[in-house]
Write a structure and sequence with these properties.
With 152 residues, the protein is an alpha/beta fold. It has 2 domains: 3-118, Nucleotidyltransferase, domain 5; 120-152, no CATH class. The chain is 39% helix and 32% strand. It has 5 helices and 5 strands. It has helices spanning 3-19, 75-87, 104-111, 121-129, 137-148, and strands at residues 26-41, 44-56, 62-70, 92-98, 116-119. It has a 5-stranded mixed β-sheet. α3 (104-111) links the parallel β4 and β5. The chain is globular, with a radius of gyration of 18 Å. The N and C termini lie far apart (56 Å). GO terms for molecular function: DNA binding; transposase activity. Keywords: DNA recombination, DNA-binding, Transposable element, Transposition. Required for the transposition of the insertion element.
């Protein structure tokens, strides 16, 4: 077996244990996002969606709640992620910070009906910048950064 196979086999049990560990009952903020990565599968390089749930616990510490892999990003898969978080002990999320994926708010509210949904600042800035001429890009970005970093 290859070195990578030996290493992954050695830690697989710990990974499964980590991925299924009990979680806190309440997270004031949970960031939910998906990144697309290239992976080698059957001697081909393909795209896979990696779902990430990053929680801020009651002590203000960031905690990676889990990582999941799928073929593509979709609200249906997010629903299964949120259901798993609930099954692992998360009873309440006060604010879910997400991108603008269609159906995402419905998936969140199906599992956590009282959760407030906040569009991620990065996505808000990206959406705002779609309409800015290139020559004004730097100045507008600096202004938006100041707005989003304001204390109130």
């Amino acid at each position: 077996a290859s070195l990578i196979s030996k290493v992954t086999d050695a830690v697989l049990e710990q990974v499964v244990e980590w991925q299924s560990r009990p979680l806190d009952t309440v997270y004031p903020i949970v960031y939910l996002d998906c990144i697309v990565v290239k992976v080698r599968q059957n001697k081909q390089v393909i795209n896979k969606a990696i779902y990430l749930a990053l929680g801020v616990n009651m002590e203000g510490q960031k905690e990676l709640l889990g990582m999941w892999m799928s073929e593509t990003e979709g609200a249906k898969f997010w629903l299964s992620v949120l259901t798993e978080l609930q099954n692992r002990g998360v009873n309440d999320i006060l604010i879910a910070c997400v991108d603008g994926l269609k159906g995402f708010p419905d998936a969140i509210n199906a599992v956590y009906p009282k959760t407030q949904i906040q569009l991620c600042i990065v996505h808000m800035v990206r959406n705002s910048m779609k309409y800015v001429p290139w020559k004004d890009y730097k100045a507008i970005t600096a202004d938006l950064k100041e707005i989003y970093q304001a204390t109130t």
